[in-house]
Amino acid sequence: MSPIERDLTAASRGAFLIPLAYCAGLQVLVLLVLSGRGFAWDFRSSLSAATMGAGYLGGLAMLVATVRLRRWVDVRLAYGSTLLLMVLMLAVTLRYRGATHLGGGEIVSFFSAWGWLLVHVAAVIVGVVLLIGQLRAPGRPSPRAEPRVWFTVLPVAVVAVIGGVVGLLALAFPGRVAAQWPWPVSDLDVSALGVWALVFGVGSVLAIREGDSDRQRVGAINYLVAGAAAVVAMLVHAGEVDWSSAYAWMYVIAMIGLALTGAVGWLMAGPAELWTSPRRIEAPARIRASD
């Protein structure tokens, strides 16, 4: 790793990942613990706030795990996913700015809305600048060539497809998706939840591209924590759910599957050679040495 890349990776942690970890912790408190009271906008149901809070709890776990790493190849999965989240959430906030408290409301919610907006604007600017610097930095190692056996890739691919499809539909057709949602949501609520779904989908694609269980560790802990927290949130707020809807049960199954996929991925981040294709067990040794 070149000195330039090392400095940029340190800047990525100090100026982007660590501040956003603190922000994620605050959102967990407001959304998951306080059920959205004092947030940037009013949710149609406490479950929507708790579900978003589950996403931020998973993101917090991922960021905490990431800031301990020192190489860009180990950080870039979490970095790219977090930057995408900030860009999409900023776009949703601006699209539905009239439904937020940017124009007024209770004093706490008013300042919360402006703080939410300013954090996302600053994060996008800083994140893009640092990303450009990393992409232009010399001496970056190539991705590890450790193909996985199919049954270890399949669950992550399923998350990619489901997250991508649900996220795109929620962002493109929020009204139609909200009408089918198994608990009360507004267009803004479903768009924000759609952002999380799409980020999980894209993050899963990035994880598959990395092709290395160690580098996928931070994504796995995100899966595990977010999925488990979402199931707990749904059980706590079960009275808000339309359990006659098939989508409610599909959602529960999807979140349980997400948590289990994360748990397996976390366990796989041990001896990677146990999960590699037999044809490529020896080849990665040279690539690991260069990393």
Automatic annotation (TrEMBL):
Keywords: Membrane, Transmembrane, Transmembrane helix. The keyword Membrane applies. The chain crosses the membrane at residues 12-34, 46-65, 77-96, 116-137, 149-170, 190-208, 220-236, 248-269. This is Uncharacterized protein. It comes from Paractinoplanes globisporus.
